[in-house]
Every structure is written in C-alpha cells, then in structure tokens.
Amino acid sequence: MEAKTPREFFEKVLPSRFKADKAEGVDVTVQVDISGVNGGSWTVTIRDQKLSVKEGVHPSPTMAISMAETDYMDLVNGRVSAERAFFAGKIRFKGNIALALKLKETGFL
After folding, report:
1. Measuring CA to CA, which of 40, 57, 101, 108 is 20 to 30 A from 11?
2. DSSP letter at 57?
3. Count: domains in the chain
4. What H or E segment, with its residue span, contains residue 108?
5. CATH number of the CATH domain containing 82
6. Residue 1 lies in a domain
7. In sequence order, which residues have a C-beta less than 8 Å from that of residue 109 and are 6 or more positions away?
8. Whole-angstrom distance, CA of residue 26 vs CA of residue 95
C-alpha cells in the first residue's frame, strides 16, 4: 500500500507495515517533523515490541527526523532508501544512527 500523505502513512500504512518481531529490545521515541502542504509533527514510540503514533511534538525524543514532504513520501513509499536520502542531505537527523538502522528493520524507515 502506497501512502499519499504523511498522515495516511502514520495512520494507515505504518501500523500495517510494522514488524513487532524485529522490534525486540527497541525502546525509542522518534520525533518526525515533515515540512510541506500536508506536513506536520508526529511522535512515534516503539517499546515492548509495540508501535504507538501520536500527532504532535514530544518534549524529549530519543531521536529526531525532519524532512520535506516530497522526500519523506519517496522514502516511506520505497522510491529512495533511508541511506540514500541521508547521504543526499534530504534527512535532518539527530540521534543514534545504529538505532535508526534497527528501525529500518521494523518497517518504520
């Protein structure tokens, strides 16, 4: 399923794509800020192999990602890899890169 907007990705696609079995031992709160017409801020928490998504800003996330809407949609729809987007400067990222790679296995990135 391809998401058309960040909201659709967070509300419909991500919950169905999430792989709980790959999230064992992961305890992270990610602040995702998307700029653009359909942008916004979302907080994604993965803890105890469960995914939680809330709209809004978290006061002290473990990791922060910010991207333009078009780049983010390319990323979540598989048109560009997270690594490629990162090295092209399309992702502004704060946090542990090893943990970010683990999140990729869970279906989040």
Report:
1. 101
2. -
3. 1
4. none
5. 3.30.1050.10
6. no
7. 75, 82, 100, 103
8. 14
From start to end of the chain, where are the E strands? 28-35, 40-47, 50-55, 63-68, 92-94
**Per the confidence metrics, is the pTM higher than 0.85?**
yes
Between CA 80 and CA 23 the distance in angstroms is 23
CA distance 59 to 86: 24
Residues for the chain: how many in total? 109
Rounded to an integer, the average pLDDT of 86-97 is 92
User: Which amino acid does the sequence have at 71?
Assistant: D
Q: Which domain holds residue 58?
A: 6-103
Phi, psi of 64 (to 5 degrees): -135, 135
| pLDDT in the model for residue 109 | 78
Q: What is the pLDDT of residues 74-87, one digit of tens each?
A: 999 999 998 899 89
What would the two tokens of residue 38 be? 């359909």
